[in-house]
Design goal:
Layout lengths: L13 H17 L6 H14 L9 H41 L7 H18 L11 H28 L1
Helix pairs in contact: 1-3, 2-3, 4-5
Length: 165
């Protein structure tokens, strides 16, 4: 069986990390300091792992490259942290939803008709209805289709009542 080297758990996406490596390598090669690529990447890895900045006596090319990329690294780490927390919430919500009852989910048209019925009952009671918040793109698209259908039906009813008068 083939043994694989342990993969590093990066706090940023693999795509972003690869672009950082390419940019560091390209920048340092342009100024003739290809020997400083490994040291710069070590500083970047250390910074992403535990927030340690390079010491003040670091090679100036390494310090400059790190300083130029630091703000971008911070943004990428924060973006990845938010994405991972969203993914964790989605997976926990999905697992709890399937474990709860195992019942069939409502279709978007049923949701829209229920929302319309609640809107009618809320209008009678004088309360403001809660806005519809779709869980995903498909649900949003189906809801929007239902809203357009309801608008066309209303337009037809109004047009028919005008011709009768």
């Amino acid at each position: 069986m083939k043994k694989h080297a342990p993969q590093r758990q990066l706090p940023v996406s693999k795509n972003f990390y690869a672009s950082v490596i390419d940019r560091v390598r390209g920048s340092l090669n342009l100024i003739g300091r290809s020997d400083a690529v490994a040291e710069t990447m070590a500083c970047i890895d250390r910074y992403m792992a535990d927030g340690t900045v390079p010491p003040t006596d670091t090679d100036p090319a390494v310090a400059l490259t790190f300083a130029l990329l630091r703000a971008e690294l911070d943004k990428a780490v924060e973006r990845s942290r938010r994405a991972r927390s969203r993914g964790a919430r989605k997976s926990s919500a999905a697992s709890s939803a399937t474990a709860e009852t195992g019942a069939k989910t409502k279709t978007a048209s049923e949701s829209a008709s229920i929302a319309e019925a609640e809107t009618d009952s809320d209008a009678e009671s004088g309360a403001d209805p809660e806005p519809f918040v779709p869980r995903n793109r498909r649900e949003r698209r189906l809801y929007e289709q239902e809203v357009r259908r309801a608008a066309r039906r209303l337009t037809r009813r109004l047009a028919a009542s005008r011709t009768e008068v």
